[in-house]
# Entry
Amino acid sequence: MDELILRPIAHIQTDFKEKFGVPRQSGRVKELQGWVVFEKEYAVREALRGLEEFSHIWLLWGFSLCKREGWSPTVRPPRLGGNKRMGVFATRSPCRPNPIGLSVVRLEGILEGKEGLMLAVSGADLVDGTPIYDIKPYLPFADVTENASGGFADSFKDYALEVELPEEWAEVLPAEKLPALLGILREDPRPAYQRDERSYGLSFAGFAVSFFVKENRVLRVTGVRREE
# Structure
């Protein structure tokens, strides 16, 4: 059997230092910002010629935090409560034979910074430091399929919580980070198998955010503090 060795061409920088809180799909929180920083070998401006003409790009990346040995033919999708099993190839679970992820993000610009050549993107669903293996332009005429079915996932596409963020906590956050945080919280970052009113905490943009959810409908933020 042929084997393919993949080497990262870049890594992405985001406001997520851990998995908890990361949106389950790209594009769900459009306000999230990220920077795809190219490895020195691939930081060649010519390789990006023409990319600025596209509004969105595909990122092919690795589930670098999934460290399980082997794989299972079935997994428990979070949106099904973590109790029902589905075939791994019918899900986007990170624990798969080849731990490869695929995300569509908006291309905000091509930059030259202290760390070299990079792409500014928005709407990414990736943890900080995730390896990027390839980048391709998103083609609306080819990548959108009319009347497509989303299977069991269709029943969750409009799911969202109401978020209550008291002013005293909103003022702790930088104003430019607030829209993204609200989007993350609306997506309900809790594990799907836990639907009680316990307190949770997530790390975002250098801040620790605590919250709980009332009646599985309203998420209330109970604290925001800068992480040390």
In short: Residues 210 and 223 are 5 Å apart (CA to CA). The chain has two domains: 10-64+99-143, 153-226.
